[in-house]
Amino acid sequence: LMLAPVPSVSEASADVSMKEEEELCQAFSEALLTVQDVDEQDADLPQLCSEYVKDIYNYLHVLEVQQAVRANYMQGYEITERMRALLIDWLVQVHSRFQLLQETLYLTVAILDRFLQVQPVSRRKLQLVGVTAMLVACKYEEMYAPEVGDFAYITDNAFTKSQILEMEQLVLRSLKFQLGRPLPLHFLRRASKVANVNSQVSTTPTYDEAHLKPIMQHIAKNVVTVNEGKTKFQAVKNKYSSSKLMKISLIPQLKSSIIKNMAAALG
């Protein structure tokens, strides 16, 4: 009779290690299953892409880095951040006038900033860039986009249709036709869905206080500036004071001491 060879010490150790590894993997899998998957009930809703949604958001995080907007990119520009604020305040009103999707406004601002950081423009052409950014965003997001003539009209014909179309080509070439940068709205909706189910879902990236606090302070400072009438840019507050948007800009919490203290921390 031939006896089976006795395993060497190294082989026996390998078997033990493999068994331990399998047990560890099994325990880890079971631990993951105890965290509720916020997408598990969406299989019958194809528009929610539950099978791919986690990969999609991982990809959006990559795109956010690849297509980043630099901080203080307007330093040394002819245009100033106040001019940008004036333009966006006006674009918010145009967006409401045209009754466009929320995504369209966010994408407009993203296109505007990504273009300006690679292509400085004169003060005279800033509004032209703004309406062109909204035209491109409309074509990307809207089912029925306003026509070029509508954008010329909304500028009180300060710019012609041909000027807008020419600027559209420049914007698209400058951005290399890459318009898929994720918007704050995308992550906000994802975070809201997670928060409604389980605030500790492991598949959603989280940020610690060191990341969040400075941003919260800047948001608080903007809220205080608007509520105390220290700026004439009121389009966003007016927009969110409508019943359609639940009058969210009028809630008393926005005037609380917590908000004021957070804003004061910035000086």
Automatic annotation (TrEMBL):
For this UniProt entry, the molecular function terms from Gene Ontology, in alphabetical order, are: cyclin-dependent protein serine/threonine kinase regulator activity
Write the record's keywords in alphabetical order, separated by commas.
Answer: Cell cycle, Cell division, Cyclin
NADP keyword on record: no
Residues forming the Cyclin-like domain are 89-173
UniProt-listed PROSITE patterns: CYCLINS
Q: Which Gene Ontology BP annotations are present?
A: cell division; mitotic cell cycle phase transition
Name the source's superkingdom: Eukaryota
Function, please? Essential for the control of the cell cycle at the G2/M (mitosis) transition.
Subunit structure as annotated in this protein's UniProt entry? Interacts with the CDK1 protein kinase to form a serine/threonine kinase holoenzyme complex also known as maturation promoting factor (MPF). The cyclin subunit imparts substrate specificity to the complex.
Q: What PANTHER family does UniProt report for this protein, alphabetically?
A: CYCLINS
Family affiliation: Belongs to the cyclin family. Cyclin AB subfamily.
Q: Which protein is depicted?
A: G2/mitotic-specific cyclin-B2
**Upper taxonomic lineage:** Eukaryota, Metazoa, Chordata, Craniata, Vertebrata
